[in-house]
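Our consortium's second objective concerns turning raw sequence data into structural hypotheses that experimental partners can test. To show how far this objective has progressed, the report includes one record in full. It was chosen at random from the queue rather than selected for favorable results. The single chain below, 190 residues long, was entered without modification.
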Amino acid sequence: MPTSVLVRAQAFIRKKIASMFSYSLRKLLLPDIDAILDIQRQAYVAELCERKEVLESKVMAASVPGTSWGIFREAELCAYAIAYPWSSERIPVWDHPHVALSEPCDSIYIHDIAVATPHLRRGLAEKMLLCLFDRAAFLGLDKALLIAVQGAHQYWQRFGFEVCPQVSASSFGDDALCMRRDIRVLCSET
């Protein structure tokens, strides 16, 4: 993909977010890891908090396709989304530091969307999810995949995700559920 197309797409997404909030959107960078870890500790039980090197590998894997962002208020990271292209035939493994982007990719794997406690209930997670859908469609990906933890499957069902009962996501915990959604349906609804 030409760099100019990627830059234009990212500018469009940043403008879209900026017009909705007094927040700014930018690509996650390695210096953001400590803030990501802080938000992760606010959002998840200790057993689901990933190690620093694991999050670093996932942020790096998402840097080329431009699928991981942070929403900032001034210099404060308020929310983040980590996602990357993936094959819907493979199930991700929790807390694994090596992310090998599979080929061919037909899905965007939404590894994590988390919001810092002071910024909850402002629509940040939903806006990031919609931006991820837009980005996935731009990349030619037609599905979204995620692993719901801590009983969050009901939250994700509001956005059209369906549980895949035949797929085990046990590396993420006993209650983890693999969920999928067709992005083409979303794009035709908007």
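The partners drew two points from this record. The chain has a mean pLDDT of 84. Strands lie at 24-27, 69-73, 76-86, 107-115, 143-148, 162-163, 177-182. Both points have been shared with the crystallography group to help prioritize constructs.
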